[in-house]
Amino acid sequence: MSYHNPPTKPRLSATFDEYTMSEIRRAAATGIYDIRGGGAKRKLPHFDDLLFLGASISRYPLEGYREKCGTNVVLGSRFAKKPIELKIPITIAGMSFGSLSGPAKEALGRGATIAGTSTTTGDGGMTEEERGHSQLLVYQYLPSRYGMNPKDLRRADAIEIVVGQGAKPGGGGMLLGQKISDRVAEMRTLPKGIDQRSASRHPDWTGPDDLEIKILELREITNWEKPIYVKVGGARPYYDTALAVKAGADVVVLDGMQGGTAATQEVFIEHVGMPTLACIRPAVQALQDLGMHRKVQLIVSGGIRNGADVAKALALGADAVSIGTAALIAIGENDPRWTADYEALGTTAAAYDDWHEGKDPAGITTQDPELMKRVDPVAAGRRLANYLKVMALEAQTIARACGKNHVHNLEPEDLCALTIEASAMAQVPLAGTNWIPGKGGY
Amino acid sequence: MPTFDLAVTPLRDLNQTLHDIVQGDNDLQFEVVNPRGHHAVAAGVHAPVSIDIRGSVGYYCGGMNDEAVITVHGSAGPGVGENMVSGRITVKGDASQYAGATGCGGLLVIEGNASSRCGISMKGIDIVVRGNIGHMSAFMAQAGNLVVLGDAGEALGDSLYEARIFVRGKVQSLGADCIEKEMRSEHIELLGRLLEKAGITDARPEEFSRYGSARKLYSFHVDNADAY
């Protein structure tokens, strides 16, 4: 008597999945870790894990399209003689010229100006494209100090001291040589074509006490007129926020793990830092413990996509949010109309992240003159303005439903969490309960 | 000559006065007394003025200086001449760490010793130190010249880009990718001009050794991983 042996289905390892195996093969073949742009791609607890509790009887909603709901925000009211007022609590995050093309920077400036908000420079200095088209421009003071000069400092509306970035807290950047055009090389005082290593730490200070003196220097140079922001990567948000406040920051910018970058190691992007959702409450707690909540403003960034994200960040205690990746998508990054070109690069018009290679079909993260022509700064700026205004409208809609006449009146009490993880991180109750797990120290 | 006594006049008044100078103003020479270790003294000056500071200063004296000629008749704290663009700063005494950090242009002369990280990330500034410099000096220096008449500490010129380093004394150790290079005639001429500009007459260019980047780490290769 013979038995039939049925065929078995091959079983893939959950640990060594196809992506993991391809990365092992790539590392073995090239001898270098994967460098890419963008933010974390893995699924992390995020704003989608929170829901708003609209008003019914215990709360009284406001009428949509009738009753006003304010969206303006003042940044830098602590020390600066000339604080910034934005029409909407959504700013454009720092993205460098060099990483981005000139037309892309111009589009960001145009869009932000129409929407009544600010743009931010980046590692590489200030360009005429963005100063000329940004009504409000924040000048980043970065560890590398590429293109840093006092004339541009005085031309800025605010100064952002970048200590860390959400995609790579504690790390510097790596811009591969192929993207270093003559103009980029000149702005950065580096030879053309080399792999540019952006520093991970400021060369001329070594701790929070030095930061305090550095802030004093920048205030003195700019006659105490401009708000001083301090940007930190979301890793130890309670202590970093507290120390930034102690050092004299007007504004703390807190960039969570979903925040993007021009180029750094994949392992850094995916394995260092904390989810944006987890960063906000400890930072707000630090401000509250110091009696500085709403006096030192908090800008939260890292994966903000729509008005619900904006409203949730504000409800958790932020004063404004900042967008980078979303702004690039709005002006055309990874746009499906370039599908064939993305496929020719071995990727898709959704997953493209090799921004450091300078071959971006959308003409945004490149210095290639031909590719750059694909960006129409006027049309792209209009698209960004539309997107920013939609986000503000969405946040207003939610705020009105919660009975608020200003988006800043949103509060943690307006939220519940869908998962235990989100409940613990955002410190709002799990939906249908009054339970917040893990409440305690940081 | 206007004199500011920082024992009684706020630092803010001094710096605002210096920043308000416009072309055609008569007062182009200033004196600062009793600096008493204040930070950011004469920071952000952007006019061709002369400033004599009688005493020692704290952090970031002459930070981002553009066009001014500043003399510290004492010692300077960390970051003197930070990100200087042009002009000249002279420190008659010693300078603390990261003197001339990220400086883009101009001349920084330290007549005493400088501490660690002198000229870190320099981007075009010329720095002349009559005494010694500390460890990690010229780390990641991109452009400009660092001239040292005394000795240099450990890891000189680590991860150097295109900046040049000239040392007359001993070098405790060189950092990654920094090597000694031949002193050719153009370097003798360059060094001669720098010494002359710095007012140094008792040292000859031929007495110096030149150090620069081996440029082996400019592009990543896994076989160089031990150097990172």
Automatic annotation (TrEMBL), chain A:
Entry-linked Pfam families: Glu_synthase
Family annotation (InterPro entries): Aldolase_TIM (IPR013785), GltB (IPR024188), GltB_archl_type (IPR043578), Glu_synthdom (IPR002932)
CDD domains reported in the protein's UniProt record: GltS_FMN
Coiled-coil intervals, chain numbering: none
Transferase is among the record's keywords: no
Domain Glutamate synthase residue range list: 80-404
One GO-annotated biological process of the protein: glutamate biosynthetic process
Keyword Oxidoreductase: yes
Protein name, entry field: FMN-binding glutamate synthase family protein
Organism listed in the record: Rhizobium jaguaris
Organismal lineage: Bacteria, Pseudomonadati, Pseudomonadota, Alphaproteobacteria, Hyphomicrobiales
From TrEMBL, chain B:
Keywords: Plasmid
Any one Gene Ontology molecular-function term assigned to this protein's record: oxidoreductase activity
Top-rank taxon: Bacteria
Record domain Glutamate synthase alpha subunit C-terminal: where: 47-186
SUPFAM superfamilies (UniProt xref): Alpha subunit of glutamate synthase, C-terminal domain (SSF69336)
Gene3D superfamilies: Glutamate synthase, alpha subunit, C-terminal domain
The protein's name in its UniProt record: Protein GlxC
Organism this protein belongs to: Rhizobium jaguaris
Lineage: Bacteria, Pseudomonadati, Pseudomonadota, Alphaproteobacteria, Hyphomicrobiales
